[in-house]
Amino acid sequence: MKVRLSDYNLNWKVLFERECKLLFDILKDEVVRFEHFGSTAVRGMKAKPVIDMMVLVKDISTIDTYNSIFEVLGYDVAGEWGIPGRRLLRKGGENRSHHIHIYQYDHPEIYRHLAVRDYLLKNLNEVYAYSAKKEELAEKYEETRAYSKAKKGYVMELEKRALKYFEELDGYQVIKILIDRYDENSNLTENDMDQLINEMMSNIGHPDPDIRDALVYSKFCEIILNGKLTVIQIRNVMKECLDNLTYRINEKNNDNVFKRSFSALFLHAIVYSDNQEKFLSEMEYNVLIKGSIDYFINEKDVRGFVDGKGWAHAPAHTSDLIVECIKSQYYMKNFNGEILEGIEINLARLQNDYIPYIDDEEMRMSHIVIELLEKSLVTEQYIVDWIKLIKNKLETTKVKDIIYYRKAKNLNDFIKSLYFGAKNHPVLQKMLITLIES
Q: Is 0.90 surpassed by the pTM of this model?
């Protein structure tokens, strides 16, 4: 077969997508996702006009049962063709148009193929060099077999450079590449998802908000809420986040708070998802809520917005987590006392030891009480008596200095937030007005 090299053609992407639809109609639920790879997947690359594509499937052992259908539709069924665990289909006869590589979703060859493709997509000089090499060899070798053999050494070196490139990337770049792949396909192999999760967990407390907030946290929420994680993956994330809640817990006013606080946000996303899908056991839930309450009580770094680094906001994040925990089917009233104790302790804390809450932390804490009331887990009178007790403790302070007044401001702002949140509890609102005026 004579070597035919073509300039990059936008229609190659169309041909790939058309073949995806045809193969999906055959394999249906077997398919995890499709990948376009090889030279026709790289803009600007000269290539033989043959579409290389991967079909990633749940179980490769089922694919041979479709061989008769493939043959009727014009595919040449080539079996493993030298790679254990692969099924190769070819289309087009002498005028070859497609090479279709079917792999089980966790096959190690997948990463190698995608690493080369993604490396070329990010390194235009490599695209130019590879295209030039192809043209050189195509002039020297007319037949495809000789051309491919001569090109093999260059391709192997290219693969080495691609794999080395990805090994040396920092966390941000790795996450971005994996997220871009996820955004393009709305899916990842289990191995790729494991890698993405590991990179996310390594950067969960990154001091750069562009990495921590915009990239890691927002994408984790999207992935878990769209049901893209296995229960095992979720449980592994949950365990690591719970461990993170105690990471250097006695320190404050440094960047370690981000790791703890954003672990609380990840846990919030997990509990929210569990409240919809019910995948946690009661024992797992109890471990989670106990760890969350302990963190609420013990976190001493209560800064809100940190200049240049974004939101730490530990009291607010943990309050949101506890509200979601209260919504769970497993929540029990015996947690009430510790949770209210946590609110009391946090209301007595000041940012940088002297600044009252200024970023709505007290409002987020009031949401906890509202949720307890909405679920009839506490009475209105109980909450009023509890607030009176906190006020009385504060009033026994011997020295009425600036610290006293700022703690009093935290408490009064909390009562006001509770008042506005208690729209379904008019009797409580009247009692809260009395407390505010007293």
A: no
